[in-house]
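C-alpha cells for chain A. Residues wanted.
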C-alpha cells in the first residue's frame, strides 16, 4: 500500500528534481559572456583615479612601487599580460568578479584581497601586503576599475588561462629542452636566468633563486602549459603545438626554485601533504630530488636587491 499511496506526489518530485538537474547542467554549459575592460584614457582625474593609476603602476613595475613585498625578479604583469588586461592571461577584470571563492589551496573561502596576498607570497616569493595597506588597496582599486560593468560570479570569455587537454604523449623533459632553446631562451636565457636591462629584468627568470617558488600556481605543469600555449612566445600565442606547450612547461618546472613557504619538515612530507597535483616537486629529475636544494622562500638570495639600494 505504501508504495502506491502517493503516485502523483512521487511523479511531481521526479519532475522537479529532473528540472533542477537540467538547470544545473544548463548553467554549466552556458556560453561565457564577452567583456571588454575600460580604456585607460577613461581613468578619472581625481583621487580615485590616482589610486587606480598607482595600482596599475604596482602591477607593471612591482619592484619600484611595492618592493618591500617582493622577493624575486618578477612583476605581476609577467603572468597577467598587457597590464592585467589581456584575455586568456588570467586578466584582473575576470579575477575580480570571481571572488570571494572557495580555494582548494587554502581549504577555505578567500576574498580577492587574500588572493592578491597569496600572489605576493608565492608568485613574487615575497610577503603579503597587509590588509588596508596602500599597495593592496591600490591593486584592488585597479582591478575593480578594470572590471567596470562586468557581472559578478559569471563566466567571462578569456578569464583565467584556457584549459589545455592532455597531450598525446606524456610531457617530456628532453623534448621540452629543445622547445625551450628554440623558442624561449632568446628572452629568458639559456639557463632560465632571465634577461636583464641594466639592473632590471627585461624578461623574467623562469627557474632558480629569483623566480617563483614551489608554492606558486605557475609551478604546476598544467597551469604553465595553459599559459604558454595561449601567450608564448610573447606576442605569438597559440603558435606552439599543444604537445610543445606541455613539454616545455614540464622542462621549465623541472628545475629548482625557492622552497614552498608552507614547507612541512621534509620535501617528502611537503609533497605528500601539499603537492598532490601535476607538478615535479619532490620528484627525482636527473639525479636530484626537486625541492631538496631549494633556497628558503621569501627572497633570502635576491638578484634584484640592487634595485632597492
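Reply:
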Amino acid at each position: 500500500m505504501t508504495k502506491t499511496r502517493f503516485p502523483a506526489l512521487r511523479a511531481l518530485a521526479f519532475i522537479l528534481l529532473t528540472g533542477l538537474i537540467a538547470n544545473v547542467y544548463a548553467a554549466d554549459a552556458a556560453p561565457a559572456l564577452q567583456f571588454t575592460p575600460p580604456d585607460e584614457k577613461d581613468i578619472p582625474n581625481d583621487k580615485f583615479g590616482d589610486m587606480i593609476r598607482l595600482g596599475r603602476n604596482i602591477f607593471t613595475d612591482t619592484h619600484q612601487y611595492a618592493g618591500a613585498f617582493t622577493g624575486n625578479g618578477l612583476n605581476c604583469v609577467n603572468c597577467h599580460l598587457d597590464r592585467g588586461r589581456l584575455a586568456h592571461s588570467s586578466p584582473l577584470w575576470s579575477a575580480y568578479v570571481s571572488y570571494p571563492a572557495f580555494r582548494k589551496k587554502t581549504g577555505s573561502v578567500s576574498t580577492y584581497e587574500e588572493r592578491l596576498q597569496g600572489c605576493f607570497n608565492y608568485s613574487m616569493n615575497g610577503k603579503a601586503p597587509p590588509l588596508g595597506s596602500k599597495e593592496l588597496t591600490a591593486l584592488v582599486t585597479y582591478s575593480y576599475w578594470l572590471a567596470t560593468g562586468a557581472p559578478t560570479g559569471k563566466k567571462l570569455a578569456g578569464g583565467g588561462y584556457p584549459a589545455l587537454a592532455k597531450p598525446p604523449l606524456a610531457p617530456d623533459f628532453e623534448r621540452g629542452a629543445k622547445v625551450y632553446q628554440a623558442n624561449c631562451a632568446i628572452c629568458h636565457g639559456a639557463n632560465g636566468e632571465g634577461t636583464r636591462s641594466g639592473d632590471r629584468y627585461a624578461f623574467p627568470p623562469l627557474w632558480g633563486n629569483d623566480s617563483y617558488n614551489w608554492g606558486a600556481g605557475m609551478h604546476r605543469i598544467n597551469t604553465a602549459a595553459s599559459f604558454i600555449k595561449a601567450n608564448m612566445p610573447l606576442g605569438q600565442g597559440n603558435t606552439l603545438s599543444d604537445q610543445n606547450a606541455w613539454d616545455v612547461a614540464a622542462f621549465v618546472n623541472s628545475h629548482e626554485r625557492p622552497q614552498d613557504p608552507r614547507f612541512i619538515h621534509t620535501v617528502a612530507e611537503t609533497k605528500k601533504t601539499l603537492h598532490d597535483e601535476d607538478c615535479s616537486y619532490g620528484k627525482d629529475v636527473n639525479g636530484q630530488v626537486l625541492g631538496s636544494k631549494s633556497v628558503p622562500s621569501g627572497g633570502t638570495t635576491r638578484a634584484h636587491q640592487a634595485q632597492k639600494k
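The first strand starts at residue 101 and ends at 103. Residues 40-146 form a domain with the Cytochrome Bc1 Complex; Chain D, domain 2 fold (CATH 1.10.760.10).
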